[in-house]
Design a protein that fits this description.
Elements lengths: L3 H13 L9 H15 L7 H12 L4 E5 L5 H10 L1 E2 L2 E5 L6 H5 E6 L4 E6 L6 E5 L6 H4 L3 H6 L1 E4 L2 E4 L5 E7 L11 H4 L4 E3 L6 H11 L12 E2 H12 L5 H16 L7 H17 L7 H12 L12 H10 L4
Parallel strand pairs: 1-9, 1-10, 2-11, 3-6, 6-9
Antiparallel strand pairs: 4-5, 7-8
Helix pairs in contact: 2-3, 2-10, 3-12, 10-12, 11-12, 11-14, 12-13, 13-14
């Protein structure tokens, strides 16, 4: 493989050419991630890997879909992560009667000025929690498409910029399918990761009950990072070196899914894989991506983008790809 030191030097030259960027070093960014993970773990018990996956997705400028049965902590995880950053947070409770304008905002006529004024919807925040997103019909779900991809929302022909940084954390349950709507594939593909929590084991559930039978710890959770620090850590992750061999490896994995599934990973999925791997590198205190970063992120980033007609829905395809594709 390519010596990462060569790519690191190139990255440093690029940084020097852009002095206006106020980035932080890898150690500082890694410490920020560790603080966020530790902060969230004061609320959730036994989901260390899942918390790391959500955090690395945020570092990689991605959105997260939390999918599982009701009551396992999906919404609590999203709230805890959002509260760990000192930014704006909005929650949208998706229901069958929710309208697209309830998400993006609406123009309202002002009687005093005799003009229409734009009243932004909950999508105009740094972290947006879309709770039970599959409860709303596809038309309302699609209101998030432009925001998630282009960080803007168009209402009545006028485009409005959404705050930066911007992340959507959506939840959906896997039961009561007769009362829910499938997410359009165009929207599923915009989520960097799909993460499931699962039931806690006996020891974890006992500890959870000890924390929550009185006042819930989420009410006392305070930010561990400012919005500026979070933005700086994101830029540090974006600057993490991805050598050509790593890019080729990710592309080969994507090509394997395209050749062995009805619907394989899109180029957006390959980009998301490498961005998540950059976040994983920062989490581990490195300024360059290694194959292990790609392998750890592959299933949550790629599996939900694959359609095979089987119940495992892409997980086995990604697992087979990791076992079959060699690193040059």
């Amino acid at each position: 493989m390519t010596n990462p030191d060569t790519d690191i030097k190139e990255t440093e030259r690029n940084r020097a050419a852009s002095p206006e960027r106020n980035d932080v070093d890898v150690e500082t960014a890694s410490d920020l991630v560790a603080r966020v993970v530790e902060n969230v773990e004061t609320v959730l018990v036994g989901n260390h890997e899942e918390i790391e996956h959500v955090t690395t997705a945020l570092l990689g400028r991605g959105h997260v879909l939390l999918e599982d049965v009701p009551g396992v902590g999906k919404t609590m995880l999203a709230r805890a992560v959002a509260r760990s950053f000192d930014g704006t947070f909005k929650r949208v409770q998706f229901t069958p009667d929710l309208l697209p304008s309830d998400v993006t905002g609406v123009n309202v006529f002002n009687q005093k000025t005799q003009e229409f004024e734009f009243r932004p919807g909950p999508v105009f925040a740094n972290v947006v929690l879309g709770d039970e997103i599959n409860r709303a019909p596809p038309k309302t779900q699609s209101a998030l498409l432009e925001a998630m991809e282009e960080q803007q929302a168009t209402v009545d022909g006028e485009t409005h910029k959404i705050p930066d940084p911007f992340t959507v954390i959506a939840t959906q349950n896997t039961v009561e399918s007769d009362r829910a709507y499938d997410l359009p594939m165009a929207e599923v593909d915009r989520f960097m990761k799909k993460v499931t929590l699962g039931y806690p084991d006996t020891h974890e559930e006992v500890n959870m009950l000890e924390r929550t039978v009185g006042d819930h710890p989420i009410e006392e959770l305070t930010p561990t990072a400012t919005l500026e620090e979070f933005g700086q850590a994101r830029r540090t992750a974006a600057n993490a070196t991805v050598a050509r061999d790593i890019r080729t490896y990710a592309t080969d994995i994507a090509n394997y899914t395209r050749e062995n599934a009805d619907l394989g990973v899109s180029p957006r999925g390959t980009i998301s894989l490498l961005r998540a791997a950059q976040g994983r590198a920062i989490l581990n205190g490195r300024e360059y991506v290694v194959p292990d970063d790609v392998q750890v992120e592959a299933v949550p980033v790629l599996a939900h983008r694959i359609r095979t007609g089987r119940s495992e829905d892409g997980v086995s395809v990604v697992t087979d790809a990791l076992a079959s594709v060699e690193i040059e």
